[in-house]
Structure formats: C-alpha cells, structure tokens
Protein 1
Amino acid sequence: MQKLYIHPLPVRLWHWTNAFGFVLLIATGLQIRYLDLVQVLSFRTAVVAHNWIGFVLIANFFVWLGFYLFTDKIKVYHPELSPRKYFQASFRQMQFYGYGIFRGEPNPHHPSAYRKFNALQSMMYQIIMMLLVPIMFFTGLLMWDVTRFSSMVELFGGVRVVDTVHVLLFIVFSGFIIVHVYLASLGHTPTAHFKAMITGYEELEDEPKTGAGS
Ligand code: HEM
C-alpha cells in the first residue's frame, strides 16, 4: 500500500488543538448558557475557562492561516473554478457517500499532496475556516468585553444580535463536528483518516483489479 504525506505538522498541531478546544468550548458554552441544566463547573469557572480556551483557539487559528498563506500548500484550498466540473465532482462524491460506499465501490476522489480534499470537503472547509470560524471568534471576542467593544457591538445591532449569531454558530459547529467525524471515518478503514491526521500520511487505497480487456 502506498503512502502519501498530506497533512504537514503545523496543520496537524493546529487541527488537534482546535478540535480539542472546540469540544471544550461547546461543553463550557453549554454550561454558561444552560446553568440550570448543566452544573459540572461553577458559572465563574466556566466563563473563565471559555474565555481562555477561546483566546488559545484564536491564536491557533493564525497558525493555520499563517501556514497556508506562507506556503504553496494554500493550493489545497483553491476552489475549482469551473462550476460544471465542481458540481459533477460534488454529485459523484454525494453518490458515493449515499450509495456507492454501501456497495463497496471505490471513492471517486483520489487525493494528492495538492488536492487532498474532495469537492464536498473543499467547499465545506472553505466555508468553515474562512467564514464561520472567524465570525465565531469575532462575536466571542466582542462579548468577552462588551463595554470595551461597545461601539462595534452597536454597529452589528447590539448584544442580542451578536449573542444570537454566536449561539447559532454554536449549533452549526456542534452539528458540523458530528458530520465531520462521521465522514472522516469513511476512509478505506474506519480509522484511516484519523491516523493520517496524526501521522501526516494517508494510505492510498489500492485500485480494484479489473477484468482482462477492461
Ligand atoms: C472531535 C473533533 C474532530 C475530529 C475527530 C476531527 C477529525 C478530522 C480528520 C480525521 C481530518 C482529516 C480527514 C479529512 O480531511 O476530513 C480532519 C480534517 C479537518 N478538520 Fe477536523 N476533526 C474534529 C474537529 C474539527 C473542528 C472543530 C474543525 C473546525 C472548526 C475541524 C476542521 C477541519 C479541517 C478544516 C480539516 C482539513 C484540515 C487541512 O488539512 O487543512 N475539525 N478532521
């Protein structure tokens, strides 16, 4: 079986810090929001922990951004510019996840160092990393000190609007993590993609042997 180095060290360090941090942010966020339902930590401890983890993840985001901006690996995030090609590839990938995978068909996407994402991952990760994560961190930062950032908070419609956006994104990220972990378990073995995010190396699935003449 061939191996391909697709996740450089900074990406792996960023990813696991981010994943672990997001789970803690969700847990402490639940505690802050639903104090009467969840009582693992005191309200004060949950707020302090939530703020600190938030700041660590904001700094960590710049590790991810810096790595991609200052290396040619940014190519993995380049969108497919032909809408026709993009939709065909997305459709093939959806067919695979919804149907082909249950019939043992091979994954239509063949990763390479500069095209490690399939069409669905490519769009999803762009939306998450370039839009939703920055909005999540920005709204969190505003609410960390509403007095200091009062003019900015007012500009965006007041504390209720900023808080609603933050909570809606909390719901989106909670759902994203479930779907993301499920999809990440659909490699040629259930742990293949997880191992790749730990070691950096993705094992390439052997092409099925085709019959003579085909
Ligand atoms: C328990 C939590 C998580 C687990 C187990 C997990 C697992 C994985 C795995 C196995 C991969 C590599 C396979 C793939 O490309 O899909 C991956 C990639 C990725 N994950 Fe996660 N993840 C988690 C949480 C998150 C969170 C919270 C985010 C963002 C908010 C995230 C964003 C990403 C991104 C952007 C990539 C592609 C990274 C790159 O190569 O540039 N993940 N994740």
Protein 2
Amino acid sequence: MKKVLILYDTVFGNTRRVAMALSRGLEAGNFYVDCSSILSVELGEIVDYDVIGIGGPTHFHGSSKEMKSFLGRLKDLKMENKRGFVFETRGDFRFAGSAANKIMKILRKMRMKIMYPVITGIVLEKEGPLQSKTLERIEQIGLELSDKLNGTAMLTNKNQEGMEIKHRSIKGILNYLKWILIGGGPIFFFSRALNLASTGGGCLGTIIPGFSWFLLVLELTISGLSGVFAILALTLLKLKRDRGVTLGRFNLKRLILFTGVSSYSIHFIRVGIWITLCVL
Ligand SMILES: Cc1cc2nc3c(=O)[nH]c(=O)nc-3n(C[C@H](O)[C@H](O)[C@H](O)COP(=O)(O)O)c2cc1C
C-alpha cells in the first residue's frame, strides 16, 4: 500500500484543517496517511513515503518564514520522482499571492512529480474561518487524488522498472512535440496566410503604388501578434497546469492545437502536391 505524508504549517489552525480534510479524502480512498506539522516532522522519515503533500498559509504573498526554512532543509533530501501535491490557505482578494506556488516551484526543482493543481482554501478573515463548504470540497479532492494514485499504482504494481521509464520517456517526447505544435502552430499559420497575401499583394503592388509598404507593415504586425498569441497560449496552459485556471467553455488550448494541426497539414498537403507534380 502506498504511504502518503501530508505536511502543513499553520498559525491559526486553518491550514491544518485543510490538511486533515485532504487526509480524510485519501483515507476514504484506502490510502495510509500520516499528517504532521512541518515543525514536528523528522526530516529523515519523509523519504519513507511515496507521496508527499505540503501546504501552508500565504504570508506576504508567498509562503511563511517557517515554510521557507523547512523547504530549505528539504532540498538536501532525495525526492526525485516522488509524487506530490501542494495546498495553501489565503485571503480572497486581488494580488493575495500564493504560498503553494512557491512550494510547488521548489518541489518541481527537486524533480518531484506534482499530481494535482494547487489546492486552495480561502479564509474569510486572517484568523479564519474558512469559506463555507471548503472542507467538504477539499475532502472530495483528497478522494480524487486517491483515484489518481490508484491509476499510477496500477502501472508501478507491475513493477517493471524498464517499462515505467520507457513510458515516461515516450510521454516526455510527446510532451515536447505538443509544445512545438502549440507554440509553432499559430506562427506557422500566420506565416502561411502572409505568404498567400504577399503573393497576391505583390501583383497588386505593381498596380497600386504604396501597396507593398502596406503589406510590409501588415506582415510585421501579424508576425508580432502571432508571437504574442503563442506566449499567451503557453501562459494560459501553465496557469491551467499549476492553478487549474481555465477559460470556461472557450478552450484556447484546443483552438490553438486545431490551428497548429490544420496549418501543418495544409502545408504538408501543399508540399505533397508539389512533389507529385514535379515527379509527373
Ligand atoms: C503575517 C501575515 C501575512 C499575511 N499575508 C497574506 C497575504 O499576503 N495574502 C493573503 O491572501 N493572506 C495573507 N495573510 C492571511 C493568511 O493567509 C491567513 O492568516 C492564513 O491563510 C490562515 O491560515 P492558518 O490558520 O493556517 O494560519 C497573512 C497573515 C499573516 C499572519
């Protein structure tokens, strides 16, 4: 059975309640869970666990002083490939900051695999209480986490080290391909569109004076915009991965993937036709 350790920091007790709710959810999913304050845990014990959840209150837009010092000591442990999740409590206001984002960054640097977007409990006042129904929602997340773990447990149950590494490297390659497609897709799409426009525009440029200049400005603007578009898309994807933020029904990721795939496909079809004509 996989062992889960949930570590929390707290001043007023709210983050401890969130940690306990996560723990109840995971236990309901048949996991063995230990829950402890970062102030009382023995560092050496942490490596005995398969999954580690770490969370704390948001202080001055980041994690608390105690959490920072704990994470500093954690860096010396070998945590590679351990699974983890992060949680936090914070106020419900603009620019509240996030303790969990800082924790997540450090865990990722330690090459832990973060298996869930940031789990947040909102406090109504500095000392609490938590928003109503928060603990029920978070207990449910604990249950979801156990489902995710059961999925990965099935893979590791086979206990074929080689197979798991292979699985990971294929996933890695696919991931790179996905990023190339997503980042390059819109740029490629616009450059195709420009190519078409400039071919037509070139002819017009000989007839209408100044039209070539107009095309050049247009070309530069669209190239700039496509770069901004790609950066925006990558930022949104990162937000979704780290914070679970989505744009509701408007699925930008799918739209960009579609643009990318269709523009690449059109290009390959064009090249295919061209080669066929040359051969003929
Ligand atoms: C010193 C201090 C700084 C804080 N700074 C922030 C902040 O920057 N953003 C925020 O959303 N909440 C801030 N808070 C509110 C805490 O997030 C809140 O007290 C905490 O979530 C409660 O959790 P706890 O009961 O586990 O301590 C701050 C609280 C304290 C005591």
